């Protein structure tokens, strides 16, 4: 969905709300519109394709997930806090939304990380959001990483605001978790994954409640917990650079390593076996993950990894380990073309649970020639060290650098004719140095600004193929994907960028925009606030915060954010035309998308901001303020039919409030402008009926 549709949809929503509540004329109603040592995670207290040997296509069911991760607790001491559980939760999010993983739509995966994981929020998501969304044929997953408590024989998950001296009243009972997911939440396949000490209590004490109320054999629950009910769960930097051992193997299993029969699908049985085997081995038997035998469909599909499908290949021997070391900090490690994390000098990255056989290993650092790819062999039960040496700075031919510099001069001027000249220079830079990732990036940006999205995607992918850790390229590519309507893939690219650099404000800003387009206003608001914290003077972050607040009904907060945007973007429009708006190129339009440079994006956004203010004040019944704001919006874009429509609604509502027909004349004027500009608008027929009634009323007053 592009920005044009978003504005249209938001205004259609306004129309539906209005026609459901406002009379066509007075008295006549309209029809509604349709650390190094392991740390214990406990405290003591009293469209994928299967291979040829399977059905040709597998369509994942509609899927919803809740991810909870807490490391630093509000009322625990620093010694009692955890290190990696929030990172675990973020890793689970990444693998769940990946098409080579869980294949969950990003907007259907809610996260409660850190201070957001309060008891009240956990209850809301588990007991209200999930039951309201999931239906009988859906897949539902709940994941928790944090502390677990046992008090008087009862097990609890610890929210951020748990009070250690009052656990039973301030923690979430595991038995209640079982009962809610087992009975209140609908779904064909339901999954509970908990990485907390005593999490095994779900599979033992709670197993009866877990299955109570299940009506038919198609409805089943898969409970995979980090340990037995009297064991601890551990976390350490030894696993993937810092994870809970259990989650480390869950994430790896879902990425395809657990697909033992090589059919491109990770089932519940496969994941359970893979996780149990590896966690037991790496913890020397101190931690034993559990899954309740017989309580779930063993063929339950948890992940889809068609790239791993190799039909008719017998199961490989059990697993081995690579220990990756590097001579430099910040080297990203790729195994079989998949990122495994970052290794620093003196701190090896241990990658356990690898299938025996040959694997491609590569080390990548921006600005340097990569080490690899090279082939390394993993043997079952063996630990093999791989030494990466990043040695050679990429040296660019002078001709390539000169072409890039000249291209940037044209690019930064904006407008179509300059973008065309910039593209020629960037292409020559890339021809002079095929490894010039910056030239590929700017070619992607330039063709995106020219609305040649096929070429833009080609060069964005080329930039990432040259430098997979190029955070800026991930974000730029995401911007283009949003415009193209591939919002899920955009979210995955932005998630990759943020995992590499959590302080990259531009990625957070784009994530706010992407989530807003998916109507996921909660996550959009959170991302926008992260962007504002990192880059407070970037006006557009305030704009998308305002949009999401507005569309989620938080009108006063939205008004403040719209005004913040207008304040920060209040400069001469000639200067605005000279600014590089590559990130905003895909915002042009709202039903009027044209070639780069033929519209003033600055004016578009300011028009939208005043439109948003107008609608907020209309809903708050501040009609005079709303009329002035819509009037200002029309000064920036006199031919926007939706703003004329909103202005007509506002005048009509003012007429109703004041019992005065005089504002109907202005309402009629703007409704007629709306019909002239867009006669095929979905609300056109209702507007015509309203105008007929208004004409009769006005005629009687003359």
Question: Gist?
Answer:
The protein has 24 helices and 25 strands. It is an alpha+beta fold and 702 residues long.
Q: How many strand segments?
A: 25
Broad CATH class of the largest domain:
Alpha Beta
- Secondary-structure class: alpha+beta
Question: What percentage of the residues does DSSP assign to strands (E)?
Answer: 15-25%
CATH architecture grouping of the largest domain: 3-Layer(aba) Sandwich
General description of the model:
The chain has 702 residues and is α+β, with helices and mostly antiparallel strands. The chain has 4 domains: 3-31 and 597-701, Tetratricopeptide repeat domain (Serine Threonine Protein Phosphatase 5, Tetratricopeptide repeat), CATH 1.25.40.10; 39-308, Rossmann fold; 320-388, Carboxypeptidase-like, regulatory domain (Immunoglobulin-like), CATH 2.60.40.1120; 398-571, Alpha Horseshoe (Serine Threonine Protein Phosphatase 5, Tetratricopeptide repeat), CATH 1.25.40.10. The strands form 8 sheets. A 6-stranded mixed β-sheet has the order 7-6-8-12-13-17, with helices on both faces. The longest helix has 19 residues, at 3-21. The chain is globular, with a radius of gyration of 28 Å.
